[in-house]
Amino acid sequence: MENMMQGNKIRRVAATRMNERSSRSHTIFRIILESKDANQKDGPVHISYLNLMDLAGSERVSLTKAAGERLKEGANINKSLSVLGNVIRQLSEGKEFISYRDSKLTRLLSQALGGNAKSLIIGNIRPMIHREVADGLERLWNVRVNCIWEADESSRHGEVYIFDHVFKQECTNSDVYGSVVKPLVDSFMEGFNATIFAYGQTSSGKTHTILGNKTDPGLFQLVSNQLFQHVADQVDKRYLIRCSYIEIYNEKINDLLDKSNQGLTIRKISKEMCCLMQGKLS
């Protein structure tokens, strides 16, 4: 968590009309876990990684009133999220060509999304804030286990959205963690790779879900707690834990664990487009 807190100090954030501390970049915190049998000096080493991602929210200029540098940032955020949507759609349709290379974000996510990867889409509803109510953005929501019905209050007709799971407004980050994140972390500690990313419109509460606060710890803190508790409990194994923390800002990749915030490059190291970034590991 110290590495993450260090990185968050230099991550790009700025105020918009929609959010006083709006994320202006996508971030990827990667945990690499190496494990081996403590009783076998030359035994096999098992390596797995877990990506924890906080994606900047999609923006509408009519709502954010962005101009100048904020407008440029918003355009790059929207473009990369649009490419991510295209990639997910191409994968779901079984397309032969997947446009990973159209953005830095999808290049870095190519391993997590492609191949034998399985994706789960979770909906998390937050309470309306005063400004949204004042702007007439109130909605009537009906929520079931995996379904959100957005109804028109006058006609009772509206859109239905299907997810793998939906969390109501009163749910805490711990509820989200226990239901959908903990099983992924369990798999990660057993040697499987996993990626968790928060995605949605700006000011939708993604960063709160990821980082949380003193009374409602975020997913990053809960992952850290589970990981180190697991390592402490497994006395018959030896572990090495490494991490990296990067941001994608205006299509440039920066190392958040380096105070100089130096730019990084992506290297293709296999036919499967496994990407290697040069930078600081902690």
From TrEMBL:
GO cellular component: microtubule
InterPro entries for this protein: Kinesin-like_fam (IPR027640), Kinesin_motor_dom (IPR001752), Kinesin_motor_dom_sf (IPR036961), P-loop_NTPase (IPR027417), Vik1/Cik1_MT-bd (IPR031852)
SUPFAM superfamilies per the UniProt record, alphabetical: P-loop containing nucleoside triphosphate hydrolases (SSF52540)
Binding site for ATP: 200-207
MF terms in GO: ATP binding; microtubule binding; microtubule motor activity
Keyword Coiled coil: yes
Pfam families found in the cross-reference section: Kinesin, Microtub_bd
Keywords from the named record: ATP-binding, Coiled coil, Cytoplasm, Cytoskeleton, Motor protein, Nucleotide-binding
Gene Ontology biological process terms, A to Z: microtubule-based movement; mitotic cell cycle
Principal location listed in the UniProt entry: cytoplasm
Domain Kinesin motor: 1-146, 142-282
Subcellular location: Cytoplasm, Cytoskeleton
PANTHER family: CENTROMERE PROTEIN E (PTHR47968), CENTROMERE-ASSOCIATED PROTEIN E (PTHR47968:SF75)
Family the UniProt entry places it in: Belongs to the TRAFAC class myosin-kinesin ATPase superfamily. Kinesin family.
Protein name: Kinesin motor domain-containing protein
Species for this entry: Acanthoscelides obtectus
